[in-house]
Amino acid sequence: MILSTKARFDLHGPKPFLKVKLIYAALISVFYALCLFSFSTIAIASHDTYRIGLTPVFLHDQSSALKQWQSYLERQLDAKVEFVQRDTYGEITDLLLGRHLDAAWICGFPYVRHNISLQLVAVPVYEGEPLYQSYLIVPNSDNKTRDISDLKGKVFAYSDPDSNSGYLVAQVAITSKGFDPKHFFQRTFFAWSHRDVIEAVAVELAQGGAVDGYVWETLKTIDPSLIKRTRVVMKSKKFGFPPIATYLGIKPERLNKLQKAFLSMSSDSEGQLLLQRLNLDGFMVSDDRLYFDILAAANSIGED
Known about the structure:
This protein has 304 residues and is an alpha/beta fold. Helix content is 43%, strand content 19%.
């Protein structure tokens, strides 16, 4: 459940909030130690291997880029790297919270939901900023829709219930128009990835969809024929880009090595080539304030 803004973030400064995170770190450590002892079926990440989780923010069909990224990180970390891919944000977030992963590329929405147990490693820089937008898209054949209100009574595709750009932003937009999101559309469904939302809209399985603008723009280069069958109706305000996060309490030396590896990509020849393939400028250090707008959006509609 989304806690109150005061409970989860100190909007007047990060220091009091960080103290709360440190207190909870010890409690979380005990809790997960018990959970792992009783229920875990996945081995805890080995100190000789870095396990990094990927959600559908990373395009699953970019397998060659994944191998290149693995090679780069293994060189930087001087250790084996294993990527763990799942089809939902929830699965990856649960693995990270359970300390089965050293880090994961997650969405800002689950980050603020579980912020008291997570911390930032690095944030991608896209088009010069650590920010991105949600896109409201419709089939290209639809030349009438100008606003989400025009999609009332239609079939709509979301990406994932834990996605900011692919779920939360649309929910807030509908609510701001005075409608109840539960009864606004004729039918909704989760496609479980941004690409699949785009494909559903392109073939008119859905009359509209909410997607990550970064993914849409990246596919515009990778698969232009798909993107041409969709049209962007609206772009949201900018939010903190989906971060690379880790669990609170990770050993400092392990965190530092991970952080250095991501931050060094823009100054490394192999890293630069990979960034081009990922359609990113690089990675940077940031703090929780980057995600305050996502937290505020969630709390504005009582999303839990």
